[in-house]
Amino acid sequence: MTTGVDQDPGHPAIELAGVHKDYLSHGETVQAVRRMDLSIAQGEFFSLLGPSGCGKTTTMRMIAGFEEPTGGTVFLDGRDVTRVSPNKRDVNMVFQSYALFPHLTAYQNVAFGLERKKVDKAEIRRRAGEIMEIVSLTGMEKRAPREMSGGQQQRVALARALVNRPRALLLDEPLGALDLKLRQQMQVELKRIQREVGITFVYVTHDQGEALTMSDRIAVMEAGRIDQLGTPREIYERPATRFVAGFIGTSNLLDGTVESVSGDVAVLSYGEGERVLVPVSAATGVGDALEVSVRPEKIDLAQDAPTGAGLSVLSGVVTEVVYHGTSTNYTVKTSAGPDLVIFDQNAYSAEDLAGPGDRVYLSWSPQHSYPIGV
Amino acid sequence: MQSNLPDPSLIRGLTQRRLGRRDALRVSGLSAFAMALAACGVKGTGSTAPSAPAPDAVAKYWAGKTSNGKVDFANWPLYMDPKHPELKKFTAATGVKVNYQEVIQEMGPWFAKVQPQLAAGQSIGYDLMVITNGIQFKQFVSSGFLAPLDHAKLPNYKANADPSYANTAYDKGNVYSVPWTSGITGIAYDPKKITRPITKLTDLWDPAFKGKVGMFSDTQELANFGLMALGLNPDESTAEDWKKAAEKLKEQKNAGQVRNYYDQSYIDALGKGEVWITQAWSGDVFQKNVSDGTDFKFVIPQEGGTIWTDNFAIPITAQNPLDAIKLMDFFYEVENAATLAEFISYVCPVPAAQEQIKKDAAKLSGDDKAAMEAIASSPLVFPAPSDYAKLHYYVDFKTVAEQQQFQSIFEPIVLA
Amino acid sequence: MGRSRRVLAPYLLILPGGLWLLLFFVIPMVTMLSLSLQQGDIVSGYAFTGHWQTYVDAVVNYRTQLVRSLIYGAVTTIVLIVVAFPVAYWIAFYGGRRKPTYLFLLLLPFFVSFVLRTISWRYILTDEGMLLGPLKSAGILPESFNILGTSVAVISGLVYNFLPFMVLPIYVALERIDPRVVEAARDLYADPPTAFRKVILPLALPGVFAGVLMTFVPASSDYVNSAVLGSSSTTMIGQVIQSQYLTSSNYPTASALSFTLMAVLLIGVFAYARALGTEDVMKVAAR
Amino acid sequence: MTQVLEEEETAVVAAPRRSRLTGGRALHIYTWIVIGWLTLPVLVMILFGFNDTPGRYNQTWEGFTLKWYGQVFALDELTKALVISLLVAVATAVVAGALGTGIGYALGRYRFRGSGTVNLIMFATMSSPELVMGASLLTLFVSLGVGLGAVTITIAHIMFSISFVAVVVRARVLTLDRSVEEAAADLGANAWTTFWRITFPIIMPAVMSGMLLAFALSIDDFVVSNFTAGTTTTFPLWIWGATRVGLPPQVNVMGTLIFLGGVLIAVVTSIRSRPRRPAA
Fold first, then answer.
1. CA-CA distance, C36 to C55, in Å (whole number)?
2. Does the beta-carbon distance from B14 to C45 stay under 8 Å?
3. Where is the ABC transporter domain positioned along the sequence (chain A) (predicted)?
4. Which domains does chain A carry?
């Protein structure tokens, strides 16, 4: 790590080094966060994604200063803030419940942080006005929180945090209380605002769709540790663990043994004409057990056997067909193991490709097979 | 006062902590702090104080006392014109400011309220109070709570007071007190409801008035009527007499004669028709008739009535005793005694006030004049010697134990 | 960050108020217990002798008043339930938007001093007063009829003065009942009386329980109503205690009676709580 | 009392239609009868404040007059008693408000060893007979040789009011969103600022209604005051003392004015605390 002042852009905005957190609950130690190392870059939109209880909120609260790590160090801009109380940390938070001050107006809520910093009145007015414009709240200054809609309250919470120009903005499931439409609208909005203000966002969510659409990078957490850290594309296309594969979108998981390796493609065979081709590294050899993930939308379903040689092919019987509007989902029982799910875009075919009981063939390109845990 | 103590070891025995080891074990469940408190007990005050002060007590008490230009005066409610003309006059004449408070409502409670402060040697906030002769008067005296009066400072009293007041059983020679006013306990009745004239105490036992009789809840007042109904003089009664009187009163109660045992609210009950015939205090009936235009009769029964006196007294811890005694004496100026009697209509301790009231009446006209003349000629405000002859004093207790015995005999009548 | 400060914070917050309650509630109770075991008189002072006999004498001498007070308290409480439940029920289920108005009207009289309110009843109930006077002159009631001074007057006064403490808890309990629960009962073939008995009543019971808790103790230990509206034949233990303290200055007897009264009431309350199977008395009372 | 007035207005009609027509109407009438019964003594009290009684006994109706309203402060002692009552009540509201808020906040906000004991003592103070509390305080003061007066009255009133304030405040603190306080800390407020700028204003309505409750309990108290007053007289004590000879009409007038004052405060509080409708 290079020496430098706070402003040094060379530092990551946030760095966790060996941070862990234990709770004592009913006499038993629960490890909420296990030895975590994490580095979040300046200006990054970073998401902590995981089911409830995975430790993502605890991680965020340690960054904010509401929880003190049992061990390890938290750095903000290269400065050790592990024992610094939240009001002295240069990060701000958007709470899940917004936590707006009910007795203050929207404007007073926004001005609260600047007042604490003893910024002079005119400057507060200028900055508050500016930020309220960014979050489209101009004209709402005198409203009390209870007189505003959920989306508006959300924006106040956002403006209240952003107006302080924090090193990083922490958002704890901020869209959870909004309905679907508003949520989607706010996702776009948040991304825009983040680009506009250029502040590091740390976003905690259990909604994988939200994380995928907004984030530069995502850390998928499970049981107190990070399972996978990467860009949305990496996470989605190349899930590192069974958990990630299952948690992010829908995945078809296949177990098999390597029959042969040609070049960087391994072949798993399941019977007459049925095979799965998996791109692998050089280390993989014949006889190795592999677990393979295939996304449902990558699979083609047809009544006839496919002709291309370079494809993975499985056959099976359709057990269920569910119409979803944009796609039709088929569940197919194959000999390869668990039932596979196939999403077929309703782009061309107005009719179902097959009905329950039909025998069908499934095929996909080798690059869509991804070995897990390799 | 030390000179009068009988035996120092006795005093110690009476006031000493008496907590032994065995006692301590009995309450071992309590915390140590509680034990400390338990051991404290409540400090006694009296028993060391003789009923008569040492010869030099007056001189000792009054030595070095100076006037502070103010006096705090505790009295009963509605015992003075609410505009306090006499007090204003006093202040104008002497420059001494009077803080007048109607805080005394019953003797028992009053004693219970001020006892802790007096026992602790603290000021009770009053320099002058009006207390009735009776159990608590005795307690005040025997606890040493009253300042001995310097009669050299009471020239008006000497000149104008009815001399018979110097001879009372409760304060012979007016050592601690001089009268504020006296009252007679007799019988009041509503002639609209009771057509025959009431003359006897035993009329309170007349079955014709079943459920319409009021008696006093004050055990002394109640006992007096029981005793007098049996032809006994309360002043000289014995414990045996008390038991007989209690029987007589229980008989009345069990027969359903008594509507209730009242404090001063009997007058209210009489006015509302709750009772037709009741034990009563003279002044109340008079004021009731004057103010409400009623026509209740008050009689001193043939068997006798009792006379009680409310007295000025100075608590021993008074801050301004010199101003207090000045005010005391002020009320013995004939004019002031007259205006007071004109308003409160109780027995005036200054005989010459009668003439003064007549003079005052002459200045008025119409109803006011008639009312004023009525006061001047009322035997209830200025009783004639023949009236006094029928009046008895309260039971006089020699010891606390005697008083407690008395209390335990009569209290169940009132409380059950 | 200030871990120790955070641990200390609740204690620091409680300290002043807690100290106050310790000094002026707990310690006085202990002092009173101590005083009840002392002997002496107000003039010569009291000393601790552990004299338990005071309790025996006090209870024997004043058993009539003690028992009477408990009976009055119990009757008052039962009458209160009967009077208050329909009112609370109607406001909770039929009050609609006017609920706060009705509650306000119920509480309105209690903006007048307790003593004054009770005295006001004296004016109304007096023998020749605005209630009985006309009835008597019309010959409907005999001339000697009276209400004041009777148990009826005292209990009416108690019921009057403690009514809000019964109505409010029952109302709160009823108000919380989800109307859909009642509808569900009707849907499941319960006729209205059955729905009331099987659904509303059990759900309202905690409110009744709280109401009993809030009225039985003060009603049993009251002395103002009996003093103002009663007579010597309605004397309650509160009057005896008050008079022992404030008229006779007989502190040991008075303290012993106070303690006995409190013990009897508390045992009663807890036995009642047990019988009802409500474990958390405090939660109900705290509502 | 104000707590109840704050109840949200929800138009819920639960009972089935049929009983609405029969049982409902009977109960409606019954409720009004009870309200009438409750209000009767108050009306009598107010009425007799206008009684043109010639003397000092105010017991039979003599005709209408407004003169007592002009002479409401003519009785010095009564006025003084009222002033003492008000001063004691204000002191009680302030001190019990502060101490009770401390306890209520601690109980609502933290889990700590000893909270059970505090709860128990609070329950005991609320369920003990007033008579016993007053009497035990008297024994304490007597044992310590402390003189009785306005100070001891105030001490006693604060004692029995603390728990009520604490209960009201605790209820509010329990529903308080903890993240609001965290938000304040997050925005740079230290613990002190957070409490005074955020937490306190939010629990303020509860503190206020706790203080109002303490005020009401204090100004109305007779029993405990009777034991701890010594030579001092409060408004209820004065009435109690004066009632044996008949109440002067000024008592009715003051009673009426206190009544109207209380009603006014209650109405204003309930209007101010009525929740406004959210925009969406």
1. 8
2. yes
3. 14-248
4. 14-246 (3.40.50.300), 253-371 (2.40.50.100)
For chain C, domain boundaries: 1-36, 52-285
Distance of CA B309 to the CA centre of its chain: 5
* Cα–Cα nearest to B334, from B75, B84, B161, B174: B161
Q: What is the largest CA-CA distance in chain D?
A: 71
Q: Which amino acid type is present at position B240?
A: E
The tens digit of pLDDT for each residue in C36-67 reads: 888 777 777 777 777 788 888 888 888 889 99
Q: What is the DSSP annotation of A211-233?
A: HHHH-SEEEEEETTEEEEEE-HH
C96 secondary structure, DSSP code = G
Using the structure block, give the residue that is written with the tokens 């209630």.
Answer: C131
Residue A145's region, left for phi above 0, alpha for psi from -120 to 50, else beta, is: alpha
Residue B352: CB atoms within 10 A of its CB come to 17
Pair of tokens at residue A54:
């995975």
> Which has the closest alpha carbon to B310: B285, B328, B298, B287?
B328
**Inter-chain CB pairs, C–D, below 8 Å:** 274
Element (H, E) at C217: helix C201-221
Q: Which of C283, C108, C87, C107 is nearest to C175 (CA)?
A: C87
Of all residues in chain D, the one with the smallest CA distance to C45 is D143
Around A184, how many Cα atoms within 13 Å sit in the side-chain half-sphere? 3
Chain B meets chain A (3+ C-beta pairs below 8 A): no
Give the span between the Cα atoms of B275 and B188, in whole angstroms: 10
Nearest CA in chain A to D200: A103
Element holding C87 (H helix, E strand): helix C63-94
Please give the average per-residue pLDDT across A346-362, as a whole number.
78
Domain annotation for chain B: domains and CATH numbers = 8-183+308-369 (3.40.190.10), 184-306+400-415 (3.40.190.10)
Query: What is the distance, to the nearest Å, from the Cα of residue B311 to the centroid of all Cα atoms in its chain?
Result: 7
Pairing of strands B177-189, B277-281: antiparallel
pTM of the predicted structure, to 2 decimals: 0.79
CA distance A34 to A17: 11
Q: Which ipTM score applies to this complex?
A: 0.76
**CATH 1.10.10.10 for the C52-285 domain, yes or no:** no
Q: Is the pLDDT of residue C120 over 60?
A: yes
**B154: amino acid identity, one letter:** L
DSSP structure class, residue C121: H
Per-residue tokens: B99: 């803080």
Q: Which residues contact A220 (CB under 8 A, 6 or more apart)?
A: A49, A50, A226, A227, A228, A229, A235, A243, A244, A247, A248
Give the position of tokens 């811890």: B317
Query: Of chain C residues 1-60, which have a CB less than 8 A from chain A?
Result: 1-3
Q: Which two tokens stand for residue A119?
A: 């910024």
Distance between CA atoms of D229 and D222, rounded to whole angstroms? 10
Looking at residue D231, its amino acid is T
Contact status, residue D157 vs residue D224, Cβ threshold 8 Å: yes
Rg (CA), chain D: 23
Q: Does C53 touch chain B (CB under 8 A)?
A: no
Residues in chain C with CB shorter than 8 Å from the CB of B23 are 48-50
| The pair of three-digit structure tokens given for residue B57, joined into one six-digit string | 């007590």
Burial label for D151, CB within 10 Å (0-12, 13-18, 19+), is middle
Q: What is the pLDDT of residues B162-214, one digit of tens each?
A: 888 888 878 888 999 999 998 889 999 999 989 899 999 999 999 999 889 99
Nearest residue to B137 via CA among B192, B179, B197, B87: B179
What tokens appear for D112 in the block? 């700590």
Q: Which two tokens stand for residue D139?
A: 């024994």
**Phi, psi values for residue B12, rounded to 5°:** -60, -40
Q: Which residues contact C179 (CB under 8 A, 6 or more apart)?
A: C93, D12, D13, D14
The terminus-to-terminus CA distance of chain C in angstroms comes to: 36
Angle formed by the axes of helices C237-246 and B400-415, nearest 10°:
160
